[in-house]
Amino acid sequence: MTQDQTAEQTPAAESADQGPAAESTAPPAADANRLAELEAEIAKLKNDVLYAKAETENTRRRLEQQAEDRGKYAVSNIAKDVLSVADNLRRALDSVPATAREGNESLAALTTGVEMTERELLATFERYGIKMVAAQGERFDPNLHQAMMEMEDPSQIEGTVVLVMQAGYTLHDRLLRPALVGVAKGGPKSGGNNVDTSV
């Protein structure tokens, strides 16, 4: 081999050596960019999955709550209608004086029957979560009571319920019907916040 041939081969050999080296540095930069893109996409997909999972859980809870509410409050419409039956039983009992019962066995038996019917009705209400609102002697509560009048009574703390005209009822934690009440005024002020009972 002559010197010229050796000189010709040397640059070719050098360029051949540099070729693969140049190629090996270029792809890692492209691979790093591609890897970063894939990691960003994976992170986004993870977030999307977590969001979808949370949304599904919220929907499940909401549907469970709605189903529970439907079960608990399904009787509310019929309960409102039956409350008038309880009112009429109470009115019937209140209209019979105790002295009239003593002198009349038939009236006493009838009154006892009406009392038993009222007790059974109220027990049935309890089984379905229907409870009478406490009113007589209680502090007026606009969430449970409806003030129909104010009554001058200096012996009572102002804002105390002194007359119940119609019983109120709740169904579980919801008000079915407010108690219609008369509220004391003119007595000592209560230590708490004054409640507006104006009608």
Question: Would you give an account of this structure?
Answer:
- With 199 residues, the protein is an alpha+beta fold.
- It folds into 3 domains: 1-74; 75-128; 131-199, Head domain of nucleotide exchange factor GrpE (Nucleotide Exchange Factor Grpe, Chain A, domain 2, Roll), CATH 2.30.22.
- 60% of the residues lie in helices and 16% in strands.
- The protein has 4 helices and 6 strands.
- The chain has helices spanning 3-73, 76-94, 98-103, 105-127; strands spanning 130-132, 145-152, 161-166, 169-171, 174-177, 179-185.
- The strands form 2 sheets. It has a 3-stranded antiparallel β-sheet. It has a 3-stranded mixed β-sheet with strand order 2-6-3, with no helix packed on it.
- A hairpin with a 2-residue loop joins strand 4 (169-171) and strand 5 (174-177).
- Helix 2 (76-94) packs antiparallel against helix 4 (105-127).
- The chain is elongated, with a radius of gyration of 42 Å.
- The chain starts with a helix and ends in a 14-residue tail after the last strand.
- This is Protein GrpE.
- Its main location: cytoplasm.
- It is found in: Cytoplasm.
- One of its GO terms (biological process) is protein folding.
- Keywords: Chaperone, Cytoplasm, Stress response.
